[in-house]
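Dear colleague,

As promised, here are the two records you asked about, laid out in our usual form so they can be pasted straight into your sheet.

NAME FIELD: protein one
SEQUENCE, THEN STRUCTURE:
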Amino acid sequence: MKHLGILLLVCGLFSHESANAQTPVLLKDINPTGSSYPGNITCFGELAYFSADDGIHGIELWKTDGTESGTVLVKDIMEGSGNSNPRNFFEIDGFIYFTTGSSSSDQQLWKTDGTTMGTQMAVDFTQVEGLLSWGGFAKYGNNIYFSGSSSEAGSELWYTDGTVAGTQLLVDILPGTVGSGPRDMIEFQDHLYFTANVPEEYLEPWVTDGTPQGTHMLKDCYVGTGSSNPMYYTVAGDHLFFRAETAAQSDELWVTDGTSDGTVLVEDISPGQDGSLPSNFTEHNGELYFRAYPSFGTNYIYRSDGTSVGTIPLPQPTYDYNLAEGMCSHDGWLYFLAYGDFNKQLWRTDGTAAGTEEILYPGPTPIQPMSNAYNLGSCGGELLFRAGYIEEIGYELFILNTSVGIDEPALTNVDIFPNPTSGQLQVSGFPVNSTFSLYTTDGRSVLNTPAAPRIDVSELRSGPYVVRITNATGGMVHTQLLILQH
């Protein structure tokens, strides 16, 4: 009865979710001698660019189209085993721009068309007169804006068009050598929004149209002496969301429509001075999703449409998660990293309690397979992420594969038993010259043999498999779920 219960449970799962169920699959073992630690995964159409270390060239620029053969090193920018550390990817006029270097004084701006020859340095910032350090890059229009520091103006708002001559200070917001320290830049509704620090107003949201005269503070959110310290600017729908604090409310969710009057507190999720500490902002289905603490020690994923009534926590599943992060909108679902019990795993939700679940790797895994995972990337129908599911290969690049369905037509006279099985199958009713195939639930073929009255599957690992029997011309004649239990 125990085996029957397992069979019914798994069959019910596959018949209900065969179109959506997914399993993590290793995309490529980039570093055969250890972990490649793929990071900064950024998607542009069907391609994703990222950084990785193959154990030979150091941390360099890679790209993938979601296939093993299409996952390749673009260029060894710092030749040898040194690291170029590519990050901050932007698309402008068909080129992917990115920065290299390890500190604010040695970063360079590069661009690529996806080929080795087409990957070239655009701007060596050390050649820009007066520029001492730089960082915090963001695309706005056809230019890249950043916080640049000079001895005359301190840290202020700069921009580049991708050339040394076209790299210059936009505006000296705080005259003098200290600087306003612009940071957290983002493009929204044909303007660039950022945080800047000036006397009396302190750290507040600012906006620019790309001209000195069009650069001004958006709103003094923290009225009086103090900083609202806005951060995590994220566009969702027709709104720009961010986190800020005031004298009355600590760190909470704010929103702006681009006007001072339209820059308001969305909801005081945790009333008082503690603040709900909203973080991990991401856009999903036109709304903002984020993590917040309604009370001390309790955290949920929230969604918001920019209104108080439309800012609510997601229903919690029976098997709960904790500390959600790395959220990513993919194929109509919200994927994220979170802890179930003490184990950090990949999760997904459709916004309901019943539709919230862990995405587990089939087979033994380390205790914390996602402990060194950060961002997820949705590219060309694939979800890409770093994981350490296989201890022997370390942290590598994984994707999700749609599971094999079992809703194909079947012949009623084909019989496969026992099911569940310990390894010896009896098969009857199959056509002459037909083929017996067995697949894991993530679509990997593990057995392909001529159909016979007796088939041995005892060498395979315990778990669910999908049987497919095809005739001599390759036509499907039978499919079913098989449970192997040693």
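NAME FIELD: protein two
SEQUENCE, THEN STRUCTURE:
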Amino acid sequence: MKKGVWLSYDLSAKGDYDGLYSWLDNHKAKECGDSIAYILWEDNGTDDIADQIRTSLSNSFDYDKRKDRIYLIYKKKDKMMTGKFVFGNRRANPWEGCGSSEEEEEDYEIS
């Protein structure tokens, strides 16, 4: 059964773009903006889709553990949307502290 999957990639300047782009092209991915692609994945039903894609990518993409990240967004078997890093990890938010909301500290009285 084919399932739609969005793939977000964040590779270093020396990342294996050729390997990733070849994999995306072989899977007839559609471009969805900077560093985002959509693919229809043939789910084999035996594992989690993220594990299937990680295994497939590992065979054609050289991953730099310190710098590269690939994140998937997909629908789980229970029909809930989820996201998961198949390579890399979450980093600190670059927008932290850029918002206009100001939190005021409250003074507390102790009796």
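A couple of things worth noting about protein two: The mean pLDDT is 88. The helical segments are 17-26, 49-58.

Best,
R.
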